[in-house]
Amino acid sequence: MHVNLPEKRYYSIGEVAKAFDVNPSLLRFWEKEFKEIQPKKKDSGTRKYTLDDVANIQKIYYLLKEKGLTIEGTKKQLKLKNLSEDNNLAVIQKLEALKSKLEQLRENL
């Protein structure tokens, strides 16, 4: 699903709901269910969603609406994805350290 939102720093709940063709109440529900959605709130309670929030909503929407997973299944998938991304970061850091050592060895030859 491609989300059609103008490029800006913050989005209102109405803009995000319209982009995903869902009710704002669904977004408020998802906010309670998924820790990945953390919109900023003004003192008045108005929610302001960032691009990261929108990206997380897009993942959740895909898993729930398009793949047909349950809320619990979606939570598990998001957790697995986060663990996978953390593992990828660790591997990249190890490879960069190895590359640095190899470059030092090459310089000493």
CATH class: Mainly Alpha
Helix content: 55-70%
The SSE order reads EHHEEHH
What's the average pLDDT? 87
> Which regions contain 5 or more consecutive residues with pLDDT less than 50?
none
What's the alpha carbon Rg, rounded to whole Å?
19 Å
Shape, principal axes of CA atoms:
elongated
Side by side, the strands of the main sheet go 1-3-2
- Percentage of β-strand residues: 5-15%
CATH fold title? Multidrug-efflux Transporter Regulator, Chain: A, Domain 2
Tally of individual helices? 4
Largest β-sheet summary:
3 strands, antiparallel
Structural commentary:
The protein has 109 residues and is mainly alpha-helical. The protein has a single domain (11-108), classed as Orthogonal Bundle (Multidrug-efflux Transporter Regulator, Chain: A, Domain 2). It is 66% helix and 6% strand. A 3-stranded antiparallel β-sheet has the order 1-3-2. A hairpin with a 5-residue loop joins β2 (40-41) and β3. The chain is elongated and about 65 Å long.
Nutshell version of this structure?
Helices cover 66% and strands 6% of the residues.
Characteristics:
109 residues; Multidrug-efflux Transporter Regulator, Chain: A, Domain 2; 4 helices; 3 strands
